[in-house]
Design goal:
Radius of gyration: 21 Å
Shape: globular
Oligomer: single chain
Largest sheet: 4 strands, antiparallel
CATH topology: Neuraminidase
Strand order of the largest sheet: 6-5-2-39
Helix content: under 10%
CATH architecture: 6 Propeller
Structural class: mainly beta
Strand content: 25-35%
CATH class: Mainly Beta
Length: about 475
């Protein structure tokens, strides 16, 4: 794809000359220096119908047996479903109380599944949680081919005051690896993902909480899955990157959704970093996109796009440490002063009070994921490191220090596909709860990873991670939300 030159920027930036590394990764407790020995890659995500609470009937039976479940309150973090292993999804839900630092079971989901997203709604469903559908099929990415069987497209409404779940019916289109974004008008924008034909889709739809209905909106300018959707300060939504086809090609393109017009418009500029002339494309999926809110710094209102992977080749590649900034005023992409130290995919990026961003964990290297007893083959590993992006300097700093090529261990556990929620009130306001995800045994040339039940807190004042109470169930690829 030809590169578009970025237009002149009105804010002062120093450009760091760096090379773009190819992207993708794997899961274990340590990094493995064996990537050069590999000549192929197969990534298979198998989620069968086995579950701790397999079906709605079992959930009803469990509810009848226990009669009541604990009610999460504002300030608690609730987690829903997820994958306990790559052949087993779960239907339970639980919540974390920041005062006791303990987890408590709440009403179980009507059905098991992984990969759902959670959005707290406004009027007329204020305080209730919109949960998108779960993945209960099979995701396969062997040697550059992406296949996902999507067998569910249900949406649920969680009422914390019950606590209880109610069905909202079905999405217009089944999808997995999609995004959902709460718009200023209270509606929820749902974009892209893998559809029933097992290919990335360009379709989008709107959930209206006033009528509890799904309505088609304009299509994206291209198919996308494992992309990002970021609500900007002007009420529009930035859609960036993603997988675009069944060959697992990733893209450096982005587009803007206008909720008033209900349309998507492609940006002329593409994601790139300045290395030489012309710039180097940043084609990514599985990355993060974080709105910068720094109280008037030079990049206030811009979006930090970090990490991700760039598809597969016959020779395995690693995940990326690449970071770009979207300038919301100029509708262009620029290279920040610094780049991440560690390469990360399926990590978390959490906006902290004051405007800094915590980037934690993620996969480094490559993975071979199968079914049965060998859930993961590990080439590389899951990171136990984290770093901080400072919007004032546009640079990254490793938590607990590090070298120019690797951050030191700082997290209590290695984890990827986990959740990270910042508390906005109470005794630990400003701290971040990181929970679950995939971890595993130390790998040499091959190892295994499994879902975690452990959790930890990051204190931005002490710049340190500490252990907190573990979840009742191990889980990865789950929905998590802070109740307001």
């Amino acid at each position: 794809m030809p590169m578009n030159a970025n237009p002149p920027r009105s804010k002062t930036h120093h450009l760091l000359v760096m090379s773009m590394v190819a992207l993708f990764t794997a899961m274990t407790l340590t990094r493995c220096k064996c990537l050069s020995d590999l000549v192929g890659l197969k990534l298979q995500y198998q989620v069968e119908f086995a579950s701790e609470v397999p079906a709605a009937a079992d959930s009803s039976a469990l509810l009848a047996k226990h009669k009541t479940f604990a009610k999460p309150l504002p300030g608690d973090v609730v987690v829903f479903g997820g994958a306990k292993a790559f052949t087993k999804t779960i239907a339970n839900a639980e919540f974390y109380n920041p005062l006791t630092q303990k987890w408590t079971a709440t009403a179980p989901l009507p059905a098991a599944g992984a990969g759902s997203l959670a959005t707290e709604l406004g009027i007329p469903l204020a305080g209730q949680i919109f949960l998108g559908q779960d993945v209960v099929g099979k995701i396969t990415i062997p040697h550059g081919k992406l296949t996902i069987n999507v067998t569910a497209n249900n949406a649920e409404l969680f009422n914390p005051s019950g606590p209880s779940f109610g069905s909202l019916g079905q999405f217009i289109d089944p999808r997995a690896g999609y995004t959902q974004t709460l718009l200023p008008n209270g509606m929820v924008l749902i974009t892209g993902g893998i559809d029933a034909s097992r290919a990335p889709t360009n379709t989008a739809e709107i959930f209206d909480p006033a009528t509890s209905t799904f309505t088609a909106t304009g299509n994206m300018t291209m198919p996308r899955a494992l992309h990002t959707a970021t609500l900007l300060n002007d009420g529009t939504v930035l859609i960036a990157g993603g997988v675009t086809d069944t060959a697992n090609d990733t893209t450096d393109t982005a587009e803007i959704y206008d909720p008033t017009a209900g349309t998507f418009t492609a940006l002329l500029a593409t994601m790139s970093i300045t290395v030489n002339n012309p710039p180097t494309s940043v084609n990514v999926a599985g990355h993060t996109a974080t709105l910068i809110s720094c109280g008037g710094c030079a990049i206030d209102g811009d979006v930090l796009i970090a990490g991700g992977y760039e598809g597969f080749a016959s020779t395995p590649s690693t995940s990326g440490n690449t970071a770009v900034l979207y300038d919301s005023a100029l509708q262009s992409f620029i290279t920040p002063t610094g780049q991440m130290t560690d390469s990360r995919t399926f990590h978390t990026a959490t906006a902290l009070p004051g405007g800094k961003v915590l980037l934690a964990g993620g996969i480094y290297g490559q993975a071979e994921i199968g079914s049965g007893s060998a859930a993961f083959g590990i080439f590389g590993g899951v990171l136990n490191s984290a770093e901080i992006f400072d919007p004032a300097t546009e640079t990254f700093t490793c938590v607990n220090g590090g070298s120019t090529t690797a951050c030191n261990k700082s997290m209590v556990n290695s984890r990827a596909g986990h959740s990270a929620i910042v508390f906005t009130s109470g005794s630990i306001a400003g701290e971040v709860l990181l929970a679950g995800g995939m971890g595993g045994k130390t790998a040499t040339t091959r190892g295994h990873a499994s879902a975690l039940k452990t959790a930890e807190l990051y204190d931005p004042v002490a710049n340190k991670f500490t252990t907190t109470g573990s979840m009742l169930s191990a889980r990865s690829a789950f929905a998590a939300i802070l109740l307001q």
